[in-house]
Write a structure and sequence with these properties.
six-stranded parallel beta sheet, 9 helices, Rossmann fold, single chain, three-stranded antiparallel beta sheet, alpha/beta
Length: 258
């Protein structure tokens, strides 16, 4: 007989009691309770529709498009930022920040570009796709953090040299940031003894690989996601709940027993 949600949460609490080193992989579902849409990469708010410019969102938000028609890329970057404007970290982000303080080694690998993990207080965060609020000049070394895009002209120009600014994110068809890749490689060379996948479809190989490796090493794995994903069939415990409610309940039970 399949386990109930309560029994699955109990399993995860037991995993936590035995864990010292934890890796948490997060995607858009972790920010859903902040009012942000869930999506694969940047594009799920388009629900597999073409953009109004007649192209997939992955094409609009690609490196080649930014090189040839940056105004198109910036149009949809601004649309996504506007949808996130005014949002803030939710209980999922805050719970993960509390967990980091309790375990010997605790890392978050996130695909999200909203910066909410750091804003909630997490220190060990690998923003593998970057952060959309840090803008860099494409020509000189100017960079600045903007809390939102409402105060800048789209597409924005560098105030120093008038070249185009761009967010410090990896667009589709671009390489991942070297610093973040190096940190991920360094940390995953040391085995974790518990791996979470939270709110991500695990579409990209570098997101699903830690789950595969944990499975092969007989390390407990947990998925928190209402939907079926690329790793659902691999994990030891799959909880079909939203991130905020699930993590809050897991942490409450853990603390009551610890």
């Amino acid at each position: 007989m399949p386990l109930s949600i309560e029994e699955k949460i109990g399993e995860v609490v037991e995993y936590l009691h035995r864990a010292n080193d934890i890796l948490v992989i997060t995607g858009a579902g972790c920010s859903a309770d902040s009012g942000l849409p869930t999506y694969r990469g940047f594009g799920g708010i388009y629900d597999n529709r073409l953009t109004e410019d007649g192209m997939p969102i992955e094409s609009a938000l690609s490196g080649p498009m930014f090189q040839s028609r940056p105004e198109i890329t910036w149009k949809y970057l601004a649309e996504i930022e506007q949808g996130a404007r005014g949002a803030s970290p939710n209980p999922a982000h805050k719970t993960l920040a509390l967990m980091e303080q309790k375990f010997e080694r605790f890392w978050i690998l996130t695909q999200n570009v909203d910066g909410f993990h750091s804003a909630a207080g997490s220190k060990n965060v690998i923003e593998i796709h970057g952060n959309m609020y840090r803008l860099n000049c494409t020509s000189c070394d100017y960079q600045k953090t903007y809390t939102d895009y409402s105060h800048i002209k789209i597409p924005p120009q560098c105030p120093r040299c008038e070249a185009m600014l761009r967010p410090n994110i990896a667009l589709f068809e671009e390489s991942l940031p070297e610093k973040q890749i190096n940190t991920l490689y360094r940390e995953t060379q040391i085995p974790f003894d518990l791996v979470f996948s939270i709110g991500t479809s695990s579409y990209f190989p570098y997101i699903s690989e830690p789950i595969w490796r944990a499975k092969q090493a007989h390390i407990p794995t947990v998925e928190i996601n209402p939907s079926e994903t690329a790793v659902s069939h691999l994990v030891d415990t799959k909880i079909e709940l939203g991130a905020a409610d699930c993590l809050t309940e897991i942490w409450t039970q853990y603390q009551s027993q610890h």
